[in-house]
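Methods — Computational structure assignment.
A single polypeptide chain was analysed. Its primary sequence is given first, followed by the predicted tertiary structure written as structure tokens.
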Amino acid sequence: MTNLANLDYVMLAVYLIGTMALGVYIGRRLKTGSDLFLAGRSLPWWAIGMSLVATDIGGTDIIGVGGQAYRYGMAVSNFEWIGCIPAMIIAAFVFVPFFWRTGVYTIPELMERRFNVGARTLLSFCWVVFMACNLGIMLLASAKLMSVLLGWDQSMAIWVTAIMVGVYTIFGGLAAVVYTDVIQCAVMIIGCLIVLVIGLAEVGGPAGLRASLEKLEQERVVASSAEDPGGEDTEAISEDDKYLALVLPVDTKTPFPWTGILFGLAMILSPAYWIGNQAIVQRSLGAKSDYQAKAAYVMGALLKNIIPIIVAVPGLIALIKFPELRDGDHAFPTLVAQLLPSGLRGVFLASFLAALMSSIDSYLNSSASLLTNDFYKRFARPDATDRQLLLIGRIVTTLLLMWAIYFAFLIIHMESGIYAIFQTLMAFFQGPALAMLMTGLLWKRATGTGAIVGFLGGICTAVTLYTLNQPAVYQAMGWKPLFQIEEPFLYFSIWAFLVALVLIIVVSFLTKREPDEKIRYCVFGEIKKETV
């Protein structure tokens, strides 16, 4: 897709210059640490709602979801329809308004108020390590994709992306992140919609797409019958062969069995992400009121309904138009390069960069918030003023950006599986983190000791399962693999959550009950509103 016309570059330049200018303009009004990390609690619901969607859907997600749809079909849409929307609605009506009323800067800070400083530090440390490393990974992923789309050198792409995002995030804080995300969300949706509409026109509309997919399904069955003429019911089309199937069997060859989707994604990873991820929750903490924080999540959930349609369906269109692709991740870029005319390619590229930038700026601001509030203010300078926190916050943000650039160059020559590895690492602690959060907020008998023991025990369980599922390990022991599907991180999260939950309950009953001052931080406790 390096054959861009001058009009494409003009569209791209207008978007990039406009985004940076808006972020820097907003930054002129920042005077305190609260302004930097919570936007002075002045954000409207509609801006937060669009920012939630923009943060969740990065550029790698556009490419990756389209690629997964190319390989496995619409089952990947469950990560939005089942993996996001229910958790967002529950968060909107139960947890997010409560978080806002407590007046905290971070979710780990709330865990100290409910449990103890140990729980806060452990949870914050895990999120900081993941976010800091993930920043480098996102920069590298951006550079690799920009090198394909623009023909840029990867090193130059890393520097350009980091500088563009860093400037408005350092100077503008959360307000700049959210308001630039509004632009990025709109541009992303428009760009993907253009690809979807033109693509559907090329394959004869929705009816033509369905007919072409059914033909491909039948061809796959015929090919399978030729390879295994003695197989049973060789003319039947299995759920694995149906590109429009949303529910896949337990023994599916894809990474999306219904058990993993329901129990691992919908019940554990999704709530942990939408209720406990600082990068997501932080913008709702900056809302004007608890009602607006609630409304923002509801709006985000409504927008989430269209994301699989505009991101996954183009992958199916690419399957019809270009069935010979060896790598599904090339589906979306190939579709854009072959179908879109000059000018519109620039619009899509702008939408792609918007998705990349919205994820990076959010993780950058949130990880700085964790380091500044959960470590610097908590341990080094408890009496730091808001003006001092503003300065320290900007310094920490700059240092994190420098670390992200360093880490991106450190892993630039590593295998492409690095991103999947870090997604698995997130599954290690998200299940235990959810167990800590849910028991602390919903069960008055939960204790700080129980929370720490359960959190660490859950992480150890996930790491153990991951280790035992490695071929070198189970083959040496003469065992069969613990999990049959590819990338079983959904199952890691299930067992890590269950072990953590059991340990928290057992240890809590064996330890002294927390005082009333801490129990009031349960969701249904006595908290009405506390000042920041």
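Note: The radius of gyration is 23 Å.
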